[in-house]
Amino acid sequence: MWLSRLLVPRIVVLFGAALAAQAEVSAPVEPLPAAVDLRAEIDRLGIGPRSQGVRPTCSVFTVVSTLELALARVRGEGLRLSPEFANRAKNLATGRVHDGGFFHDILAGLAREGIVRENAMPYAKRFDPEAKAAVDDETLAAEATALRALIGKRLHVVWIKPWSEGTRGLSETQFEAVRRTLANGLAVATGMAHSRTLVGYRDDKKVLGGGVFLTLDSALGRYGEVSYEFVRTELCDVFTFEVLPEPKPAAKKLSAREG
């Protein structure tokens, strides 16, 4: 099962769990670069911007694009993933038939159902709860199961700011965590009325708040920008994926004769 973890303060929870154990996290010591830009790497991997069209699926695209970059770190190559499958998985997990949704519901769907390649279940212009995949059910299930296992083994969801009713904006510690995540080469999913993926930043004293974040924006179907001030004041929930080391192979057990 995937784990969800807050960066600061650090909280470890299972998907949907209400109970959490809190611990102190030491402040980062390494200075951050004045600018980080992941766009060239994202394009090289073949996982650049794409359009959600008229559907209200910005949060689905944001989750999937954030996952794509983290998964590329694990696999050593890009893999274009299916927002359509992620949307369906979310509905199966929640028991509701709805187009789009919240980060936590989409992540719950991925944790339960896995994910597949885009060309196994292409994105449709219009929402169809009965939409069929481009491959047979057995192939679809096998691929979803394999990717679910890989993601579960090598990636953790890290909540920088979990959703909480009536709260908006980031603390300075959370803001720092966003920039540090980007400096480490990973994307950051940001949610509000419209969700976007952060893929870089640039300090600029002439801009409100002291700089801009680079975004991957499915409503625009291209890269964009938002100010530091916007991120500090408007966001409702923020997460990223932490890449875990590959597990060490199990030690070989010696037989009685070998021992």
Distance between the termini: 36 Å
Radius of gyration using CA atoms only: 19 Å
How many alpha or pi helices? 7
Shape: globular
CATH topology, which one? Answer: Cathepsin B, Chain A
If you had to describe this structure to a student in words, what would you say it looks like?
- This protein is of the alpha+beta class.
- It has a single domain, classed as Cysteine proteinases (Cathepsin B, Chain A, Alpha-Beta Complex).
- It has helices at residues 39-44, 58-75, 83-94, 103-113, 137-154, 172-183, 228-234, and strands at residues 3-6, 10-14, 21-23, 35-37, 155-161, 188-191, 196-203, 211-217, 222-227, 237-243.
- Strands 1, 2, 3, 4, 5, 6, 7, 8, 9 and 10 form a 10-stranded mixed beta sheet that branches.
- Strand 1 and strand 2 (10-14) form a beta hairpin.
- Residues 6-28 have low confidence and may be disordered.
